[in-house]
Amino acid sequence: MDKIIDILDSIAYEKGLKVEDVEQALKEALIKTAQKMVDPSLNFDAQIDRVNKKLELFQKLEVVENNDERLLGNSLDQYNNLINPENFICIDEAKKIDSDLEVGDSVDYDLEFENMGRNAATILHNNFEYKIQRFIEENLVTKFKNKIGKIVNGSVTRVDRAENTFIEIGEVKAILPRKNRIKGEIFKVGDHLKAVVKAVKIDKSLGLIIEISRTSPKFLEALIALEVPEVKDNRITIEASARIPGSRAKIALSTIEPNIDPIGSVVGVKGVRISSISQELNGESIDCVEYSTVPEMFLSRALSPAIISSVVIDKSAIPGKNSKAVVTIPSDQKSKAIGRVGLNIRLASMLTKTDIELKEIEATNALSGFANDQQNDNKSAAPVDLEALFK
């Protein structure tokens, strides 16, 4: 084991791990191997001496009083397991080894791992490899948990019978479930695609599982950030977003810079930017709405292209639940407010987190009063105008 330090450093470099983690993995594997080869009830410990480039294994004995019951081998631990008396040494025996030892200290007996045989080396290798793999998985979990809500790119490696798509992203594989795929999309092996990381977890049988999505509103937001520099630089803020994947989406935009038009910046010249994003979303139509801190104004804008007469929001909503609003609209604007198959009102409700109730008024009634007043004014003014002509 003369080259043990060089080997550990090499493993840490190749696997992208910390040297301390690799050392810890080896020590734990060595202790587990010793317990299996000697006695699982004994206490072992291991140290790595980087100065002398040595791996040390030893058995630990706790120093106890001469009359301690644990020395007799009849005591039980908290789990009702018999305590091994070989894990203890009485104070008198300990003093013979080192006169400075006190009750509660420990005595270490060196063990030679090489004397445990070839079978021990095989067990150590398997235990060490398992520990290293766990550290690699933990690092990947941390890495991809930090990427939740962010875009990743990969190539399709497999599509199963349930139409789940498996994508290779660097050193790991991710899964795009059918439910997270935009309606109408079909992928085949070799295709490259973008998606947003939705969840990261470790399964006991399957290992690391990275779930990605193309239907999440976060995917739309991430695409906009990629396409629009003002959003990436935080000069424009995406306040909220709502999607019905593959059909339509709405995003609420705001900015504190007076010289920036948030909607115009996202749409781009002749709609170039928004068209590129829509193409990535399989032709999904995207509406840009200017955000307002006034709820009534925000809701009115969210229902565009419909023209709203008034908005009344119920202020007594239960925390954690959608608020309720009554929106009054002219009858000729109702179809625009609802939208095709109800898409517009559903998206507006999702965007503003408000349950919307439409209250319809007749457009002719709203205008009749104004028309009658104008007609009366014209009648009264007509004789005066005629008389003025003959003066």
Task: Explain what this protein looks like in three dimensions.
The chain has 12 helices and 15 strands. It is elongated. The strands form 4 sheets. It has a 5-stranded mixed beta barrel. Strands 1, 2, 3 and 4 form a 4-stranded mixed beta sheet that branches. A 3-stranded mixed beta sheet has the order 10-11-12, with helices on both faces. Helices cover 37% and strands 27% of the residues. A hairpin with a 2-residue loop joins strand 6 and strand 7. It has 391 residues and is an alpha/beta fold. Belongs to the NusA family. Keywords: Cytoplasm, RNA-binding, Transcription, Transcription antitermination, Transcription regulation, Transcription termination.
Name the features.
single chain; 391 residues; alpha/beta; 5-stranded mixed β-barrel; 4-stranded mixed sheet; 12 helices; 15 strands; elongated
Biggest β-sheet: strands ordered side by side in the sheet? 5-6-7-9-8
Order of helices and strands: HHEEEHEHEEEEEHHEEHHEHEEHHEH
What is the mean predicted local confidence, pLDDT? 87
Distance between the termini: 124 Å
Radius of gyration: 36 Å
Strand content: 25-35%
Sheet bearing the most strands, described?
A: 5 strands, mixed, barrel
SS-based structural class? alpha/beta
Helix content: 25-40%
Counted by DSSP, the helix tally is 12
| Low-pLDDT windows of residues | 366-374, 376-391
Tell me, briefly, the overall form.
elongated
In total, how many beta strands? 15
Protein name: Transcription termination/antitermination protein NusA
Keywords: Cytoplasm, RNA-binding, Transcription, Transcription antitermination, Transcription regulation, Transcription termination
Family: Belongs to the NusA family.
Subunit structure: Monomer. Binds directly to the core enzyme of the DNA-dependent RNA polymerase and to nascent RNA.
